[in-house]
Amino acid sequence: MAGVNLKKKFYFVGIKGSGMSSLAHILFDLGNEVTGSDIEDYVFTEQGLNDKNIEIKPFNQENITGEHTYIIGNAFNSSNNEEVSKILKSKYDFYFYHDYLKEMSIEKRSIGVAGVHGKTSTTSLLSYLLEQTVGTSYLIGDGNGKGDSTSKYFVFEACEYKNHFLNYKPYYGIITNIDLDHPDFFKSEEQVIRSFAEYAKNVRHKLLIFGDDNKYKKLILREDKKLLTYGFLENNVFQARNIIQKEEGFKYDFYYKGAFVETIEMPLYGKHNILNSLAAVGILYLENVSLSKISELAKEYKGAKRRFQVEEYKGYTWINDYAHHPIEITVTIEATKQKYPNKKIVAIFQPHTYTRTLMFEKI
User: Fold this and answer.
1) Where are the domains of the chain?
2) What is the pLDDT of residues 104-120, one digit of tens each?
3) Largest Cα–Cα distance in the chain?
4) Helices and strands (H, E) in the chain, number of each type
């Protein structure tokens, strides 16, 4: 996997980033020496790094000695970071985060999970189910990562921001949905569609895509043999039927090309999570993983970090969810109503970026 079996020494510039910390976990698990730098303020990803005794230093150009292979986070460049400036000027061995991930996506039977909403939840669920059955390496956008040298699989989150996902060439691809987001980069939905069309072309084997939204037809021709749709409608290759949503979670029947395969039950909430699970289970079905085993494992799945995390405090129930887009806020509220049908619900919104908040204020 990208030469990591050479037992290199890696240094991460911006190691607390959600993707960077996940990659650091992978390389550490594979036996490499890993360290890095970042801001001194606490970030939720650092707990996992601390648990593995991965050293995190404050940014300082004196940290850069040339003895490591450097991985540079996408948020940093030579103009805003002294360490990056020294790495580039000294011509030390380095990768930008998305370039290193590109190599990993080629060397394994990789599954790249893209989409404007639901990437992290789908990547987390698919990683959990593969890990519990046939084993996998994975990189999740909630700071979790694992390296497994014995597995042929690699599940990773493929983010569309600044078109970084166009570097990747996954064996399988998932596109959970297409929508306008990251308005500081994408100026229209048509730009987003064009980018996802390019990502679709890079998928080497099969592409699973949400089929209930006709936007997918703009990406790739329906007759393309690598395209497989999933959703609630009957024309999809993978379909969820007989859906039951209760306070304990959801249950549905998984269908492939109109034929019943297995009943899937999970302690998750909202139709968006049914769709996420449908994509994940679809990949496992294509890889001939026992869905009866998957059905049992799915009942124990706890969810991704910062995605519908429930806490009790002073008689109140708090739900923490990284819902930073109007659609994500809507489905989070719907999921809350499913789990707590008799409770009053109050939503507190924390703006994520200035450009996104400004644009969505006008919608």
Assistant:
1) 4-97, 108-298, 309-361
2) 999 889 999 999 888 88
3) 62
4) 10, 17
| % of residues, the chain, pLDDT over 70 | 85
Domain 108-298 belongs in CATH node 3.40.1190.10: yes
**Residue matched to tokens 């996506």:** 105
Tell whether the model's pLDDT for residue 95 goes beyond 90. yes
Q: Which two tokens stand for residue 282?
A: 């679809």
* CB-CB contact of 132 with 89 (8 Å): no
Beta bridge pairs of residue 172: 111, 206
Of 109-118, 196-205, 302-311, 328-337, the poorest mean pLDDT is in 302-311
| pTM reported for the whole predicted model | 0.83
Q: Give, rounded to a whole angstrom, the gap between the first and last alpha carbons of the chain.
A: 44
Distance of CA 294 to the CA centre of its chain: 20
Q: Which CATH number fits domain 4-97: 3.30.300.30, 3.40.50.720, 3.40.50.1000, 3.40.309.10?
A: 3.40.50.720
DSSP state at residue 227:
E
Kindly report the number of other CB atoms within 10 A of residue 315's CB atom. 5
In contact, 1 and 59? CB cutoff 8 Å: no
In sequence order, what E strands does 140-276 have? 145-146, 153-157, 172-175, 206-210, 227-231, 238-246, 249-256, 259-266
Task: Answer yes or no: is pLDDT of 20 > 80.
Answer: yes
Listed residue (115, 110, 150, 114) closest to 127, CA to CA: 110
C-alpha–C-alpha distance, residues 203 and 205, integer Å: 6
